[in-house]
Specification:
The protein contains 14 helices and eight strands. A five-stranded parallel β-sheet has the order 2-1-3-4-5, with helices on both faces. Helix 1 packs parallel to helix 7 (126-132). The chain has helices spanning 12-21, 33-41, 50-55, 67-75, 83-86, 101-113, 126-132, 143-156, 168-197, 201-208, 216-219, 243-260, 265-279, 290-297; strands spanning 2-6, 25-29, 59-62, 92-95, 117-120, 123-124, 135-140, 157-164. The protein has two domains: 2-165, 3-Layer(aba) Sandwich (Rossmann fold), CATH 3.40.50; 171-297, N-(1-d-carboxylethyl)-l-norvaline Dehydrogenase, domain 2 (Orthogonal Bundle). It is an alpha/beta fold. The structure holds nicotinamide-adenine-dinucleotide. Residues 6-12, 29-32, 35, 50, 63-65, 69, 73, 97-98, 123-124, 126-127, 245, 248 line the site of nicotinamide-adenine-dinucleotide (NAD). It is an enzyme of class 1 (oxidoreductase).
């Protein structure tokens, strides 16, 4: 299948490489020359522009930083035609970027109005998952488009879940990451409280990991060194999942909370806590490094 892959950053390049490895006829593009060079060095064919890549493709995958990038690329500007304008009728657009639910629905609406098909398919699993083709995809769109995309997504990932109509892949992502942000803070607070009460890290871990406090933030991403040797705490909080990305995702959760009027106080508080963390030293640290802020802020 002829696939245009636009956005060859930390995630996009390894994803595109996995599709090329599976034998697809790939063409990539990125607006940053260094990313184009890296793609060329990795053996990926690159186009002169996103429009050139999209015009010749049956499938267009985007992996951009934010919803603004996706909507601008789909729409184009006064000077530049959008991807939707140059693609052959009926092209399938799959946006794998993490963007707001309403932006994803707007993108899908624009694609449909231009005579195309569209899915939102954000991922979890990070750069390691992108490299090893073990990503999880959360997909929003029609049954038919989902079935058409499934084999392509399965080439880049291990788990592909159809979450419902347009935007519901992003909805699943935002809800999952809100759970994650809140639970990582709760686990970090519990460890700091345990320290103050004289409880060893290992004792708290041994109890909570086998009791009702058990969760991924504890048993995989344990915020103290020792109990889980592979967690970022053992390597000075190198990500992992960076504080800047958690802050971004909780910002999308905050938008969704405002849109729906849900009384999500924990989600809003986690958004505040991670915004401060990412504005300070935490942007490039794993988000479990929030434990150091909690320690520092404690009396
Ligand atoms: P990144 O910044 O490394 O890559 C994005 C790339 O898109 C950049 O190279 C940028 O130049 C390019 N780009 C922007 N506009 C473009 C356009 N119009 N045409 C072509 N290229 C364009 O970001 P990333 O870490 O690869 O993340 C991509 C998306 O995946 C984000 O939405 C992020 O939230 C999400 N995500 C990232 C991770 C992670 O661990 N990095 C995990 C899950 C989800």
């Amino acid at each position: 299948m002829r696939i245009a892959f636009l956005g060859l950053g930390h995630m996009g390049l390894p994803m595109a490489r996995n599709l090329a490895k599976a034998g697809h006829d790939m063409v990539g593009f990125d607006v940053v020359p260094a990313a184009i060079d890296a793609a060329g060095a990795a053996g990926l064919a690159v186009a002169d522009s996103g429009q050139d890549a999209a015009a010749s493709a049956e499938l267009v995958i985007t992996m951009f930083p934010s919803g603004r990038h996706v909507l601008e690329a789909y729409r184009g500007s006064d000077q530049t035609p959008g991807l939707l304008a140059v693609a052959a009728p009926g092209t399938l657009f799959i946006d794998c970027s993490t963007i707001a639910v309403d932006e994803a629905q707007e993108a899908a609406g624009l694609a449909a109005a231009a005579g195309h098909r569209a899915l939102d398919a954000p991922v979890s699993g990070g750069v390691v998952g992108a490299e090893n083709a073990t990503l999880a995809f959360m997909v929003g769109g029609s049954d038919e488009d989902f079935e058409a995309a499934r084999p392509i997504l399965e080439t880049m990932g291990r788990r592909v879940v159809h979450c419902g109509g347009a935007g519901l892949g992003q909805a699943a992502k935002v809800c999952n990451n809100m759970i994650l942000g809140v639970s990582q803070i709760a686990v970090a607070e519990a460890f700091v409280l345990g320290e103050r009460l004289g409880l060893s890290h290992q004792a708290l871990f041994d109890v909570a990991s086998n009791a009702s406090g058990q969760c991924w933030a504890l048993t995989t991403n344990c915020p103290v060194p020792g109990p889980v040797p592979t967690s970022p705490a053992n390597r000075d909080y190198q990500p992992g999942f960076a504080g800047a990305l958690m802050s971004k995702d909780l910002g999308l959760a905050e938008q969704a909370i405002a849109l729906t009027g849900v009384d999500a106080r924990m989600g809003r508080l986690a958004r505040e806590i991670y915004r401060e963390f990412a504005d300070g030293e935490g942007a490039g640290q794993d988000f479990s490094g929030i434990i150091n802020t909690i320690r520092a802020e404690s009396a």
